[in-house]
């Protein structure tokens, strides 16, 4: 065999080896890709625990606080993965925001809301789900909070994996209730409060859906079904954006600025009315300029709702960060206070380093795992465009205001998803109504294409049933899991 043949064979062997290595690298990258998110999450949880060790200092309970910080970081990650989708899903589904843009805006405004206006007291304890004084000792209280935190995080993680947007507030409430029952019996639970929370399972989505459907009906009647859509839009879009501005100003005054200043409902409504009037006046020339040259068709109207929708998503994220960060770090702050002072009956303030864990955890969770639920809320329940998504965002703000006025506990998750359902079911009803009119006007028309169009607009029943089932079992599932974890912790501690 000649040297040339040997060299050729050697090169062929080398090529085959390199190809095997390339295939191995591709396979390794494919297998490793799903592990990137959990890997980064684990690093964040470890860093949160180290942060707790640095700021809490050395004491007899340092180890417990380190573990609690890890659980709090885990819960914050899950809130980012699940709850934030409700704010960003409609804007992404309507193509007003890209997925990357939504994640960036949400991360910034969720963190700002959490750090600037969030967590004045621990809501899950201050609301009286259980009576802290019913706990025998500070150690029992700490174990109960650990169990509540871990059970809520595990339940939200499972819901995210299944693809169901659930209420993280209800998850924490269920966790606190289950641990409280395990620690001190059924008498420790404030059942009147739990009854109100159970009522919110129905009130939140129904109210959110009804308000979203009402605004969609208004937009269709006053703008979309008009002969001159652009002229109608010039008249009504500034009014709608003004209502949105006023609603969000009231919403943020009521729910998002508790730490900065406490405002009663009447003052918040006056602030909202003033802001709404200013926004309406400013938007008149803006909409007039945007509408120049637009064609008289529905697609052109989407341009006019794009910016308001993005702004509404950012404001919802700010308010969500201000309110729901306590779900992640409230029990952690309670553990820190009980570990430092031994006092577990007083209202609990959240330290800054604990708030940082919550804010960063929500942002990381959104970035790593949020797209799945954002797609679910934004496009897989029903098809959204900027007008429909605007109705969902506006209903979220107005529903919270109405609920505050009536003194009803509501869930931001249930309101937002209920708004999506409301828009979808209204579209079903409206399409059916219009088709009946068309069949009466033209009895000989072929109904099959109309039926196909109607069927494509239906709310996806499989997602509807999955989400409703997850909502109903959230509190009992988190409570059961929390009670089991509490018993395990007490066995280990003893």
Automatic annotation (TrEMBL):
It comes from the Bacteria. This is Phosphate transporter. InterPro entries: Phos_transporter. The keyword Manganese does not apply. Belongs to the inorganic phosphate transporter (PiT) (TC 2.A.20) family. Keywords: Membrane, Phosphate transport, Transmembrane, Transmembrane helix, Transport. Its main location: membrane. One of its GO terms (cellular component) is membrane. The chain crosses the membrane at residues 35-56, 62-80, 92-118, 138-160, 172-192, 198-219, 231-254, 260-282, 303-322, 350-369, 389-406, 412-429, 464-493. GO terms for molecular function: phosphate transmembrane transporter activity. It is found in: Membrane. It comes from Roseovarius albus.
């Amino acid at each position: 065999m000649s040297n040339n043949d040997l060299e050729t064979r050697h090169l062929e062997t080398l090529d085959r080896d390199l190809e095997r290595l390339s295939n191995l690298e591709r396979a390794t990258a494919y297998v490793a890709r799903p592990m990137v998110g959990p890997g980064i999450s684990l690093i964040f949880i470890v860093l949160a625990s180290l942060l707790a060790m640095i700021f809490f200092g050395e004491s007899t309970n340092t180890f417990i606080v380190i573990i609690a910080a890890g659980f709090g970081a885990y819960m914050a990650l899950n809130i980012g993965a699940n709850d934030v989708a409700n704010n960003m899903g409609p804007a992404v589904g309507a193509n007003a925001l890209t997925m990357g843009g939504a994640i960036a805006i949400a991360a910034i405004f969720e963190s700002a809301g959490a750090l600037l206006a969030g967590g004045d007291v621990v809501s899950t304890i201050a609301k009286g789900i259980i009576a802290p004084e019913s706990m025998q000792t500070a150690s029992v209280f700490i174990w109960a909070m650990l169990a509540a935190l871990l059970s809520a995080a595990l339940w939200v993680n499972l819901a995210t994996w299944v693809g169901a947007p659930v209420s993280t507030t209800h998850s924490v409430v269920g966790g606190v209730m289950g641990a409280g029952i395990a620690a001190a019996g059924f008498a420790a639970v404030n059942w009147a409060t739990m009854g109100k929370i159970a009522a919110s399972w129905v009130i939140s989505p129904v109210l959110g859906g009804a308000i979203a459907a009402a605004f969609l009906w208004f937009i269709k009647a006053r703008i979309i079904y008009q002969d001159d859509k652009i002229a109608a839009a010039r008249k009504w879009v500034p009014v709608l954006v003004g209502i949105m501005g006023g609603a969000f100003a009231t919403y943020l005054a009521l729910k998002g600025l508790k730490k900065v200043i406490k405002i009663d409902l009447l003052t918040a409504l006056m602030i909202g009315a003033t802001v709404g009037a200013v926004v309406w006046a400013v938007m008149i020339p803006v909409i007039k300029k945007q509408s120049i040259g637009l064609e008289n068709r529905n697609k052109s109207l989407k341009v006019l709702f794009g910016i308001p929708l993005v702004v509404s998503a950012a404001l919802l994220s700010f308010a969500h960060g201000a309110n729901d960060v306590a779900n992640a770090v409230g029990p952690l702050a309670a553990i820190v206070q009980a570990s430092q002072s031994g006092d577990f009956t007083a209202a609990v303030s959240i330290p800054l380093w604990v708030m940082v864990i919550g804010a960063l955890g929500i942002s990381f969770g959104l970035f790593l795992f949020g797209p799945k639920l954002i797609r679910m809320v934004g496009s897989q329940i029903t098809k959204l465009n900027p007008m429909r998504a605007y109705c969902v965002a506006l209903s979220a703000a107005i529903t919270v205001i109405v609920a505050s006025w009536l003194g009803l506990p509501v869930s931001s998750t249930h309101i937002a998803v209920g708004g999506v359902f409301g828009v979808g079911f209204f579209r079903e009803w409206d399409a059916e109504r219009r088709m009946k009119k068309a069949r009466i006007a033209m009895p000989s028309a072929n109904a099959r294409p109309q039926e196909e169009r109607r069927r494509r607009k239906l709310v996806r029943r499989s997602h509807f049933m999955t989400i409703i089932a997850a909502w109903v079992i959230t509190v009992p599932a988190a409570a059961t899991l929390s009670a089991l974890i509490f018993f395990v912790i007490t066995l280990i501690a003893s």
